[in-house]
Design goal:
Blueprint lengths: L9 H14 L10 E6 L5 H4 L7 E3 L3 E2 L4 E4 L8 E4 L23 E2 L17 H19 L2 H4 L5 H4 L4 H5 L8 H6 L15 E10 L5 E12 L15 E13 L9 E12 L3 H6 L15 E2 L19
Parallel strand pairs: 3-11
Antiparallel strand pairs: 1-2, 1-10, 4-5, 6-7, 7-8, 8-9, 9-10
Length: 318
């Protein structure tokens, strides 16, 4: 994988200048932060006989204050005003850390990744589609929910679920933006609370023009971190982080060479909210309370950060 050309990407150049200016005037108040990754679809590995996941990293910080914000998600609609998340000084229950956030009623962990009823797709029968859904479900669970991966950093568990050639195209040995798109890595020194992450999202399938089965996924994952000092936490979004990934998984069968048979990550878009900017830039997940705020952050109705139906943001000022 070659990421040398990322240094010259115009979005990243702007971000570096922005960070330099921002760090010169860091604010003292603690604010929630978000970050976003956006990776365009890679050229078909079936044409090139391999896939390279090229990351265009776009990092962002977001003020998530407990005030009413104007929701301009739909420019053609009249603005609406909503309360963001919680009251001014909510109590944070570490046994139920998602209370007061839009993720409170989501399914717990693995239960949130529930494939739909399978139906025939192109030349694939319902049983074959169901088998494809299950392979992708298992990979999603391993990538985003398995504690051995999240905090134990045992990324071999992820690689074994990919096609043999796909494994050689992804370097998960050290933190990076590209690696984070493939599997979630909790930063060293931080611990998740002993509650399952909250998950919501959808999965669907279609047949690609070359005959492969493609499974489209769009899932949001909310993680709750154990704070260093619980007495200093006054808002659940200081310890809750949100990750969203829109990923296409391509599944090839015996029509392809043995090295190319299996599951490929062929397109990924990612978006993060309320996590620490610097850690996320390194390709690691850490709670927002752990880093000073980035001044000049834009505002956003924070309920949208939890909504898988909202288009993934592409701007940044982290």
């Amino acid at each position: 994988m070659n990421t040398d050309d990322l240094d010259d990407h115009p979005d990243l150049q702007n971000l570096r200048l922005s960070r330099k200016d921002q760090r010169a005037a860091q604010a003292e108040a603690r604010r929630r932060q978000r970050q976003a990754f956006d990776m365009p679809a890679a050229p078909s590995f079936l044409r090139r006989n391999r896939t390279v996941l090229v990351v265009v990293g776009v990092l962002a910080a977001l003020v998530a204050a407990s005030v009413a914000l104007v929701d301009r998600a739909r420019p053609d609609a009249a603005p609406t005003v909503r309360n963001t998340l919680v009251a001014e000084s909510p109590s944070v229950d570490l046994a139920h850390p998602f209370t007061g956030t839009p993720a409170a009623d989501w399914a717990d962990g693995v239960a949130g990744i529930a494939p739909p009823a399978a139906a025939p797709v192109g030349s694939y029968g319902a049983d074959q589609v169901a088998a494809g859904f299950e392979r992708v479900r298992q990979l999603l669970v391993t990538e985003r929910l398995d504690p051995a991966v999240l905090t134990g950093h045992d990324f071999g568990r992820v690689l074994t679920l990919l096609a043999p050639r796909a494994r050689s195209e992804v370097d998960l040995s050290t933190p990076s933006q590209n690696a984070y798109l493939t599997a979630t890595r909790v930063a060293d020194g931080f611990t998740l609370l002993p509650v399952p992450p909250k998950v919501t999202g959808t999965m669907s399938a279609e047949q690609a023009p070359d005959g492969a089965l493609v499974v489209h996924t769009n899932y949001v994952f909310a993680y709750a971190f154990a704070p260093e000092d619980p007495d200093e936490i006054t808002n659940p979004m200081e310890i809750v982080t949100v990750d969203r990934f829109e990923t296409d998984y391509t599944i090839t069968d015996e029509r392809w060479t043995p090295e190319d048979q299996g599951v490929w990550l062929t397109s990924i878009q990612g978006f993060g909210y309320a996590m620490a900017c610097d850690a996320y830039e390194r390709g690691e997940l850490a709670p927002g309370y752990s880093e000073p705020p980035k001044p000049g952050a834009d505002t956003m109705d924070s309920t949208r950060a939890f909504d898988p139906d909202v288009p993934i943001p592409t701007t940044s000022n982290c």
